[in-house]
């Protein structure tokens, strides 16, 4: 495989090019998108708050503008609460799936294995020789002869 930015050959499994650092395009349709537990919890809270706001606006519109009686207002309110609770249940189910997957894999953060592959590919690269530090410092200790006048 080759990098689309610089054209250098790239090892399989890497997500970034080792030469230029560009993100490699991987067409894998079998991967599910990563959902973070923090984002899921914030979506749950936002759904609950916005749902309560929408239900109260719906109740006030039905009472003040449409002049509904108590029975139809309560029926639509209960139906709205059930829909909101169903959405919250879906969010909770997704959250428990993510947490259970992380427990089974033995880590606390979702990881697709790309980091391990990148580190493994980098460790197989040949190590360049490093110049000695003393080559540059010994020249400073050469004697300097000054002519005294």
Protein architecture, described:
The protein starts with 36 loop residues before the first helix and ends in a 12-residue tail after the last helix. It folds into 2 domains: 1-29; 32-109. The longest helix has 36 residues, at 70-105. The protein is mostly helical. Helix 1 packs antiparallel against helix 2. The radius of gyration is 32 Å and the shape is elongated. It has helices spanning 37-64, 70-105, 114-123, 134-137. 52% of the residues lie in helices and 0% in strands.
In short:
With 149 residues, this protein is mostly helical. It has helices at 37-64, 70-105, 114-123, 134-137.
Q: What structural class do you assign from the helix and strand content?
A: mainly alpha
The overall strand count is 0
Query: Into which percentage range does the β-strand content fall?
Result: under 5%
Q: What percent of the residues sit in helical stretches (DSSP H or I)?
A: 40-55%
Helix-strand pattern, N to C? Answer: HHHH
- Give the tally of structural domains: 2
Rg over alpha carbons: 32 Å
């Amino acid at each position: 495989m080759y990098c689309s930015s610089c054209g250098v050959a790239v090892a399989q499994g890497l997500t970034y090019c080792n030469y230029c650092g560009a993100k490699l395009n991987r067409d894998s349709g079998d991967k599910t998108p990563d959902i973070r537990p923090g984002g899921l919890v914030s979506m749950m809270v936002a759904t609950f708050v916005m749902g309560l706001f929408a239900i109260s606006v719906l109740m006030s519109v039905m009472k003040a503008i449409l002049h509904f009686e108590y029975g139809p207002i309560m029926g639509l309110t209960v139906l709205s609460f059930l829909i909101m609770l169903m959405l919250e249940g879906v969010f909770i189910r997704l959250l428990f799936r993510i947490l259970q997957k992380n427990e089974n894999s033995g880590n606390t953060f979702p990881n697709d294995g790309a980091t391990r592959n990148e580190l493994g590919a980098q460790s197989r690269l040949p190590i360049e020789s490093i110049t000695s530090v003393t080559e540059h410092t010994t020249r400073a200790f050469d004697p300097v002869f000054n002519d005294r006048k």
